[in-house]
């Protein structure tokens, strides 16, 4: 248990809705004061109300903003629990914390992929090149940031392109503003009941041949692995970028992360 003199020290967590609430709740129980950065108001609603919890919504756009935030709020350590592909955020965090000598801890979910004959790792979103794409149905489950560019590439390969996007303003706007036909766009939250019912029905309805997603370790990835495993479909997983490998301290279990914070800060 944490000593009394360590109470109310400020920890800053950057995360989404899966890992962030778990880490924050445990630190709050230990009387840390917790700052949490999320991208949207909806993401902030995943966290409990607590007088020692401070939710910050929106992006910190550069290193200087990050440094100012750390100094202003007297942050003793920063936890990067962002998406494995959130490269820009992580680079800004790393450079900022290094410059002002603030401890930076990485929490990253384990890669979940199993060994199977229809799962394939690829290096980039456009690296599906060892299969016949012409007139095949490919489902893009890659988020919205690179959706139009990726969709355009596979359409030029003469594939029929479909996508599933999250029900957020940014995702919906980018999806319907992309080159993908409106009828080929589905808006839904990833299933969390381990049955993958909606995603499975979507693949059946569209007669999907290939699914493209990223190796995020999320429950969304679990769903696609479950659906594709044992089917005639193929799953292509984009490898994680290596930018976060430079972190001095990294964890893939909550307990180890929390214990490190208690012991050192």
Please give a handful of descriptors for the protein shown:
265 residues; alpha/beta; Rossmann fold; 2 domains; 6-stranded parallel β-sheet; 12 strands; elongated
Question: Topology, pairings included?
Answer:
Blueprint: E1 10-15, H1 20-29, E2 33-38, H2 41-44, E3 53-57, H3 63-72, E4 75-81, H4 87-100, E5 104-107, E6 119-122, E7 137-141, H5 147-156, E8 160-165, H6 169-176, E9 185-187, H7 197-206, E10 210-214, H8 219-228, E11 234-238, E12 249-251, H9 254-264
Parallel strand pairs: 1-2, 1-4, 2-3, 4-5, 5-12, 6-11, 7-8, 7-10, 8-9, 10-11
What does this structure look like?
A six-stranded parallel β-sheet has the order 3-2-1-4-5-12, sandwiched between helices. Helices cover 33% and strands 22% of the residues. Helix 3 crosses helix 4. The longest helix is centred in the middle third of the chain and has 14 residues. Helix 6 links the parallel strand 8 and strand 9. The two termini are 13 Å apart. The protein is elongated. The N terminus is likely disordered. It has 265 residues and is of the alpha/beta class. It has two domains: 130 residues, Rossmann fold (3-Layer(aba) Sandwich); 120 residues, HUPs (Rossmann fold). The chain is built from nine helices and twelve strands.
Query: What is the CATH top level name of the largest domain?
Result: Alpha Beta
Strand order in space, largest sheet: 3-2-1-4-5-12
Would you list the SSEs in sequence order as H and E?
A: EHEHEHEHEEEHEHEHEHEEH
Determine the number of helices (DSSP H or I, runs of at least 4 residues).
9
Which structural category fits the helices and strands?
A: alpha/beta
CATH superfamily of the largest domain: NAD(P)-binding Rossmann-like Domain
